[in-house]
Amino acid sequence: MGQRFLRSRKVRDKIIAAAELSKNDTVLEVGPGEGFLTEALAAHAGRVIAIEKDMRFVALLKEKFCNAENVEIIEGDILKIQNSKINPPVGGQNSKFKIVANIPYYFTSRFLRLTLEAEQRPELMVLMVQKEVADRLTAKPLHMNMLGLSVQAFAKVKRIAPVPRGAFSPPPRVDSAVVKIFDISNDFFEKHHINQKQFFALARRAFAQKRKMLSNSLGLKGDTRRPQELSLEDWARLAETN
Questions:
Q1: Average pLDDT, 10 consecutive residues per value, the chain (242 residues)
Q2: Domain(s) of CATH 3.40.50.150: residues in the chain
Q3: Among 28, 135, 196, 221, which one is most buried in terms of CB atoms within 10 A?
């Protein structure tokens, strides 16, 4: 399944610090694997709900945390849970929680989209992602992309630390980075009175032809800009007039 298990305590400490955990926090961990990060989460948070897809690790985790009253191990696929419109098992509709995870690289984009568009969203997320994904998430105009725009429309994104390949076992073929996604809300859409579906449909049309000027890709007469050159506020103005 592409698992790469974090082994660096230094990196783990940076993840925990970025999550700003207290004993009042509920943390949803996705893909805990062997429980290396779970141990630290349990020591700092009031409740940890770890969702693991691989039944082999579920058995290991349940044995490892059998005496930890604040740790709950659930066998399941987080993408199926999100797709089925079932809220993460953290409590009621208004329950607050945080997501801290070393997620498999192959579903990072899909996981982020489903999480940010869900009715029940986390207060913040601290995620281990591929360095290339971190670059896309934190992109600014001239280098903007569909993933970066999709996340930045809902939240602020901050790169916390680079993570070398040697921090994992087995080492991946690429470098990684820890990112923090916070201040998650619909404020951007509400402020500009923008329909989310129409906004993203417009952006997808433009990025599908990212080498073309907006005058060609979106039919905006005289607009010589390309989609990667636009800021979030530029996209808001486009959405308001289209």
A1: 80 97 95 94 96 93 96 90 59 78 82 89 94 96 96 98 92 92 97 94 96 95 96 94 78
A2: 5-185
A3: 28
Q: With contact defined as beta carbons under 8 Å apart, do 70 and 25 qualify?
A: no
pTM of model > 0.90: yes
Which amino acid would we find at residue 79? L
What stretch(es) of the chain map to CATH 1.10.8.100?
A: 189-241
User: What does the alpha-carbon distance between residue 115 and residue 117 come to, in Å, rounded to a whole number?
Assistant: 6
Fold of 5-185: Rossmann fold (3.40.50)
Cβ atoms 168, 7 nearer than 8 A: yes
- Quickly tell me which residue has 């980075």 as its tokens: 177
Angle, helices 9-19 vs 36-44, to 10°: value is: 40
Burial 190-227 (b: 16+ CB within 10 A, else e): eeeebeeeebbebbeebbeeeeebbeebbebeeeeebb
- In the chain, what is the straight-line distance between the N-terminal and C-terminal CA atoms, in Å? 42
Q: What is the DSSP letter of 35?
A: S
pLDDT in tens, 64-107: 999 999 999 999 888 887 665 445 566 655 678 999 988 777 78
Q: Write out the two tokens for 8.
A: 């660096």
CATH class of this structure's domain 189-241: mainly alpha
